[in-house]
Amino acid sequence: MATSLTDTTTLHNGVKMPWFGLGVFKVKEGSEVIESVRAALKHGYRAIDTAAVYQNEEGVGKAIKESGVPREEIFITSKVWNSDQGYESTLQAYETSLKKLGLDYLDLYLIHWPGKNKFKETWKALEKLYKDGRVRAIGVSNFKIHHLEELLKDCEIKPMVNQVEFHPHLTQKDLLAYCQKEGIQLEAWSPLKQGQLVNDPVLTEIGKKYGKSAVQVILRWDLQNKVVTIPKSIKEQRIIDNANIFDFELTAEDMETIDGLNKDERVGSDPDVMMVGFTD
């Protein structure tokens, strides 16, 4: 069980990935993202998650440089966007992301959404980047079980990570069990349901027992489910508070109560219908 911000899970290829990090979805390019990432790194975060479509890779790269934290101590994730799917275009998208970030390599590169029919070709490009030593780990995002089964039929390298929407209203029990069985690390995006769960009465009540907020309860629940989590914030105090979850443990009963909040309700798109940016 993770006991500090620097604790890691070991991916199936032996690479160590922090259990906890900062997401920068919808964080504006420029000073907003630079300050957010710098604050996180200053307070001990060692994982930053961005994506080409977030249009803030340059700011993330600047903040990493300015932080004074050695590059090899930071785990950086980016993602190939839908319109760049395909073999050659993915290789090109990777170069573009690296250039914007000002880095020589990424720690994790993900296919952002499965789409219809190109993800196998895209995956081949990720396998090449991995085999060439350009990226330390490769994975997918927003893949349901059927997408993973399809990919596993003929991939050479199994995805190391599947980053999906995961929170107490969308507990994805079957997907979590499937990924754990296959040795694919599940990672939660939007763990707070884009802020909708921060005042949830059940979570607030559980938090009172530990002197913690509903937010801290959710993030702790992620970790105890063995799910990597990357809450987003642009406020330094919130960034500190989000990470203050390593000094308590939820009981089995608390975990069950939180699981019981599930409604199979998404705040993001359903991966089976998300086709924004895809080109045939």
UniProtKB/TrEMBL annotation:
Superkingdom as given in the UniProt entry: Bacteria
Keyword Methyltransferase among record annotations: no
Domain spans labelled NADP-dependent oxidoreductase: 30-262
Protein keywords: NADP, Oxidoreductase
Annotated InterPro entries: AKR, AKR5G, Aldo/ket_reductase_CS, NAD(P)_OxRdtase_dom_sf, NADP_OxRdtase_dom
Gene3D superfamilies: NADP-dependent oxidoreductase domain (3.20.20.100)
Pfam families documented for this protein: Aldo_ket_red (PF00248)
PANTHER family in UniProt: 2,5-DIKETO-D-GLUCONIC ACID REDUCTASE, NADP-DEPENDENT OXIDOREDUCTASE DOMAIN-CONTAINING PROTEIN
Family: Belongs to the aldo/keto reductase family.
Protein name as catalogued: Aldo/keto reductase
